[in-house]
Amino acid sequence: MLDATGLAEAIAAGAISASDALERLCGEIAARNSALNAIVVSDIDRARMAAAAADRRLRAGERLPLLGVPITIKESFDVAGLPTNWGLAAYRDAIARTDAVAVARLRQAGAVVVGKTNVSEGLAGWHATNPVYGRTHHPLNADWTPGGSSSGAAAAVAAGLSYLDIGSDLGGSIRGPSHFCGIFGHMATHGLIPLRGHVLDGRLAPLDISSPGPMARSARDLARALLAMAGPDANEAAGYRLALRQARHDACKDFRVLVLDAHPMVPTDPSVRGAVTELAGRLANAGAKVERAERIIPDIRKLTETYIALLGTALSIGQTEAEAARLRERVSDLASDDDTIAAQRLRAATMSHAAWVRANETRFELRWAWQRVFENHDAVICPPCIVPALAHAEAAGATLTVNGQTIDAEDNIAWAAVASCCGLPATTMPVTISGEGKPLGVQIIGPYLEDLTPIALARLAGDGG
Amino acid sequence: MSKVYLAGPEVFFANGNELIEQKKDIARHYGFTPVASVEEDDFPSGKFESGMFISTLNERLMKSADFIIANLTPFRGISADVGTVFELGFMCALGRPVFGYSNDPRDYDERAANDYYVGAIKPVDGLLRAPDGQMVEDHEMADNLMIDGGIIARGGQVIRPNAGARLANDDTSMFESCLAAARDYFAMRA
């Protein structure tokens, strides 16, 4: 099966019509989706009309980056006329009136929306299940989870039921599922793609840390979709214009890469660390300058703790006074020296505004520290997640055993923190397969607002240098 | 990092050097390495010799570049600078990606009708004819069809304002849109 770029080129060249490409995809969906439960809302009637319109535009000579390419959209993004409920029963019947900005821009680039893909309930966790749409399964093994929260997006793209999807990521929701399913994913620099239309209750303030981005079958598809979606929202376009720079290098040998394969606060499965080592070796063989990241990049513990503080407050959106009171009670029960990730997250959920201001200041100190790191380096490669794809039962548990150590399952967010603390872009690419046949991905963190650089490295490393 | 050859009539402008440096800075911001004509001042003294020197130098610069961005804003007439158009064709023939921009929003036939024939053209048998009997081409293009056609056929773009008055010579917004188009071209085709 072609990637989105290959299909866009084939359609533009007249090798296949948009309508035929859509019908072929519908055949795949009909054959496999009921078992996977990746696409949970179908928009096929409108997709057929959009594909026919794309064919008319193609005949008239129009060319657009994704003209006629069938895509799916993560359920949490508004698609006009379809439900947006994040898998939460309370929002089951909420129908979006307009497209999210990211969705509208993909349509402007010519994409044909086929349907919406499943999420973990409330976009939290890697269990790929919720009371509205049920559970999504991993395309390689129905006993495994595709990860979350962009569960259906990763499963649909990996299974060939979609050419492209949009994920969103504040705790690994693009990176984890991409890694679990063996596809490419890119979490954009925070703010690069407008978040409007990716909120419940029509909220307008962008959620802190959260960043959307494409999930696809190739790195070049990530670039194509990112360029379609990036840029200031309508109210900012009056004064701001996006001047995203091209990738820093176009050959592996020119990249200066930092390697980070262990996190001081969580264990990481040896298979996942092995994928980082393998990519580092591949890059070094291709002539890249490869160094260990420790002592060059900002302190990982500080990045993680700052991230947890900011994440906890971001997720307090919609918190009622009664909930806050219950949380404060739980915080008062914590031992004062309890610095586990779970304890830090609990404290963050009710932290004072003054404490948030301090964490925010630290975030900006760290972002400027990264700025200096990226003057002499181009990318950091590290695990996207602590484990490879989990069995459904493991993903549902409150604890997890990794490398012989039992940890709180939510400690998994530690690998999301390295990039997300400061809003850096992070591309996830498939690198190898474990002995059990599980895909293993690597996270490539790039410089702030230089998203095309980590995407280019993913492409070049995938091409063999 | 891709090397871009900046072609245009700026060298003739009163503030040409300043403008060329400004364009180079913007190109660098997008991650490109810019080159443009006349970066050396060690020319032969003879008029003809210096002309040959610059021509040879520019051809060498173009061969070293990955692609070209040509300023096609009409210059001393209703069409783009002829040297710039030569360079555009040179790069097309070398098989390099080509991009063009104009600070003039108008189609070629509008300029021919209004600026050259001053309103005296009319349709005859489905073609626009001037009082001198000459046909005026109308392809909804920015300039001669070989220019727009050559660029677009190679996947490049001809960028110009949507409407309104011609932008000032030192307005770099169309040039910057061209850089963004080139960035997207390379990112998507890599």
CATH architecture designation of the largest domain in chain A: Alpha-Beta Complex
Q: Give the DSSP E fraction of chain A (strand runs of 2 or more residues).
A: 15-25%
Distance between the termini of chain B: 13 Å
The level 1 CATH classification of the largest domain in chain B is: Alpha Beta
The beta-strand count of chain A equals: 15
Tertiary shape of chain B: globular
What is the assembly state of the chains in this entry? Answer: heterodimer
Rg value of chain B:
17 Å
**What's the tally of helices of chain A?**
15
Structural features, described:
The complex is a heterodimer of chains A (465) and B (190). In chain A, a hairpin with a 3-residue loop joins strand 4 (129-130) and strand 5 (134-135). The longest helix of chain A is centred in the C-terminal third of the chain and has 24 residues, at 353-376. Chain A has helices spanning 4-12, 18-36, 44-59, 101-108, 151-159, 175-181, 219-229, 270-285, 300-314, 321-333, 341-349, 353-376, 392-396, 414-420, 452-462, and strands at 39-42, 70-74, 112-117, 129-130, 134-135, 164-169, 184-187, 211-216, 256-259, 289-292, 379-382, 399-402, 405-408, 426-433, 439-445. By secondary structure, chain A is of the alpha+beta class. Chain A has an 8-stranded mixed β-sheet with strand order 6-8-7-14-15-11-9-10, sandwiched between helices. Chain A has a 3-stranded mixed β-sheet with strand order 1-3-2. Chain A has a two-stranded antiparallel sheet with strand order 4-5. The mean pLDDT of chain A is 96. Chain A contains 15 helices and 15 strands. With 190 residues, chain B is an alpha/beta fold. Chain B has 2 domains: 3-106 and 142-189, Rossmann fold (3-Layer(aba) Sandwich), CATH 3.40.50; 108-141, no CATH class. In chain B, 42% of the residues lie in helices and 15% in strands. Chain B has 6 helices and 8 strands. In chain B, the strands form 2 sheets. A 5-stranded parallel β-sheet of chain B has the order 2-1-3-4-8, with helices on both faces. Chain B has a 3-stranded antiparallel β-sheet with strand order 5-6-7. In chain B, strand 6 (127-129) and strand 7 form a beta hairpin. In chain B, 35% of the residues are buried. The interface between A and B is medium-sized, with 20 and 16 residues.
